[in-house]
Amino acid sequence: MDVNEVIDRARDSFNVRRVFGDPIQQGEVTLVPAARVTGGGGGGGGEGPAEGTQGAESTGKGYGSGFGLNARPAGAFVLRNGKVRWMPAVDVNRIILGAQVLMGIVLLTFGQRLAHSLFQEGKPLHRKRFAR
């Protein structure tokens, strides 16, 4: 497969059907799903003999190409009674990941402060707090 073929296939992949799904109609309500689509591609090339080679082994050739496509749900347009409303999609995985990162930062910050206050030289531990 050459580079131009890959580029043509990538171009066919990036179309409006990737962004807006088929409308779903139920009664008076029509739902049009939407996605956030990103992608990229690249290619390589080559010709001619490799440097410093001679004879029959001196024929050189090389090509390479590829592309990637990423689609995430963005939300949906809801059409009801002639009015359009946007309903964004909620990515629960991102919310959970954000909460985990935030909790890690909080634990590192307070854990570091606690360790620093416990292991300072010259200051006795306050055992009165724990005495009964």
H/I helix tally? 3
Unreliable sequence segments:
none
Q: Describe the global form.
A: flat
Query: Helix and strand string, N-terminal first?
Result: HHEEEEH
Sheet with most strands: strand arrangement: 1-2-3-4
% residues in beta strands: 25-35%
Q: Distance between the terminal alpha carbons, to the nearest Å?
A: 79 Å
Question: Structural class from helices and strands?
Answer: alpha+beta
Query: Radius of gyration over alpha carbons?
Result: 30 Å
Give the strand tally.
4
Q: Major beta sheet, specifics?
A: 4 strands, antiparallel
State the share of residues found in helices, binned by percent: 25-40%
Mean pLDDT across all amino acids:
79
Oligomer designation: single chain
What features would you describe in this structure?
It is built from three helices and four strands. It is flat. It is α+β, with helices and mostly antiparallel strands and 132 residues long.
In short:
Helix content is 32%, strand content 30%.
